[in-house]
Design goal:
Two copies of one chain form a homodimer. Chain A has about 260 residues and is of the alpha+beta class. Chain A folds into two domains: about 30-155, Jelly Rolls, CATH 2.60.120; about 170-255, Winged helix-like DNA-binding domain superfamily/Winged helix DNA-binding domain (Arc Repressor Mutant, subunit A). Chain A has nine helices and eleven strands. A four-stranded antiparallel beta sheet of chain A has the order 1-8-3-6. In chain A, a hairpin with a 5-residue loop joins β4 and β5. In chain A, α2 packs antiparallel against α5, α6 (about 170-185) packs antiparallel against α9 (about 245-250) and α7 (about 200-210) crosses α8 (about 210-225). Chain A is globular. Residues about 1-30 of chain A have low confidence and may be disordered. The interface between A and B is large, with 68 and 61 residues. Chain B binds a DNA duplex (30 and 30 nucleotides) through α7.
Chain lengths: ~260, ~260
DNA sequence: CGATGTGTTGACCGGGTTCAAACAATGTGG
DNA sequence: CCACATTGTTTGAACCCGGTCAACACATCG
């Protein structure tokens, strides 16, 4: 299992921020309202709620499916992926949760967690008991609103992906996926060169509704177009030289 | 504090080429339970919140995109569809909201409504000001939880549809769609014969990520298999003789 | 009546799946 | 250290589902 290898550099931020500036500096670091809002709500939580901090490493579980729902998890930094198990033993990628995202909303409807969640990278997770959140919400309305905004955002993203699957051909779909990650990196005030996707082609394809072969082929085509630049380090390491070009490619639905 | 030891249970990996797992159609739909919960939360609202009742007819707007977000809408009975406008003027079906569903969550993230919503049929809509909901939530925690459950449910449905688009072929996709409506009818304690879909083939296809021609063809194939029985009244009126057979068809991903 | 919107069906073609082979990266045990 | 297995990635070739274009049926409505 490749995730289980030990991190030599415990702080992924430094690795990603490595500077060898042959790529153009990104158009606008876009510190963004999102990051600001994320900070605000985390400050609210820190002030008004008891929670536990956990530092997890790639592959460690955040929550397990079929356990009773009681706590919500906030990704303070790092990345988490959620999987739903199918009857035949295979599992499907349900979603990705990055810095500022919450994990565990899906348990509220049925009373038990609907999916397994794993850290994809060294991550810090804040876990809050839902009952205490409700309790604190009575005193701090801003906290409640922050929670709702997070839920609303997750809903909107889910819907956008559904529409992307319904409308975009394979290449544009992968490009859109990469655009999301680039976006996230830029929100963290990092650069979009040296992206390291800790995902197999099969997992990407599973999420995007295509086979691993098609993912591989689409990657090759995007590289041919110069939209991604593979690193010599391996096929999971690459740079995104021009995020705007990627956006344009998605908007054109891959007609280029 | 830092949990440096490795996790004993490695995360399950996807099999090679695995996107052949099936997504689960809601374990034990619990026909009565949802309706019960729906009734409960509506009782809570009726008792603790001021709201406006509107009876709308097919085509009437519930909310408009780009207007400031201030109110949430609860479908007391009837059906609502939401549309998002694309840059080129075309619009995409964002979702359907039936009895007990809420409309308007998507406005919380950006502060303005993200989509247009129209009644698909004669419907009663309860509209609540979000600020008042927050206010009342401080006194009535059950109300807040009901809201969260509704949001969680919508998120889960959105995700399930995304997975359906990613995994199911056209016929099974349409079957799954019909299964949802049949389900809803049964929740309302009605029968699943004489379904009347107030949707064009193009709208269905738009939602399901396929062309109207494919929708038509899939309908014909389902009718040939006896999974739906068209009424003489027109091609939008039909019966679903055996919902279980429909479920089985979806689970088999259309291999029948 | 023609006009318009909607639904159905056929023929054709292309993007993506499937099957298959080979390669690369990594780990394991002798 | 190498031989070997394992897992992940790439690429090729053939097939097929679903998109595209087109013609036609059927309804409602002016």
């Amino acid at each position: 299992m490749m995730e289980l290898q030990r991190q030599q550099t415990p702080e992924p931020r430094l690795r990603n921020g490595a500077f060898n500036g042959q790529f153009q500096p990104l158009p606008a670091p876009a510190p963004g309202k999102l990051l600001e809002r994320c900070r605000e709500s985390q400050a609210l939580i820190e002030r008004h709620l008891p929670f536990t901090r956990r530092v997890l490493h790639a592959g460690n579980p955040v929550q397990s499916a079929r356990t009773p729902f009681s706590t919500l998890h906030l990704v303070h930094f790092g990345a988490v992926k959620t999987l739903v198990a199918a009857a035949d033993g295979s599992s499907h990628v349900a979603g990705f949760h990055l810095k500022g995202d919450w994990v565990g909303f899906d348990g509220m409807i049925s009373g038990e967690c609907a999916c397994d969640a794993y850290a994809m990278d060294t991550s810090e997770i804040w876990s809050l008991r839902y009952a205490l959140v409700l309790q604190a919400a009575a005193q701090v309305p801003g906290l409640l609103h922050a929670l709702h905004v997070a839920m609303s955002g997750q809903m909107a993203r889910e819907r956008e992906w559904r529409m992307a699957l319904a409308t975009l051909p394979a290449d544009a779909r992968l490009a859109d996926f990469l655009r999301c990650w680039a976006h996230w990196l830029m929100q963290r005030e990092l650069r979009a060169d040296h992206v390291t996707l800790r995902l197999t082609r099969a997992e990407i394809g599973n999420y995007l509704g295509m086979t691993l072969e098609t993912v591989s082929r689409s990657f090759s085509r995007l590289a041919l177009l110069g939209l991604v630049a593979f690193d010599s380090k391996g096929r999971r390491n690459f740079a995104i030289p021009d995020v705007q070009a990627l956006v344009a490619f998605v908007d054109a639905r891959g007609d280029s």
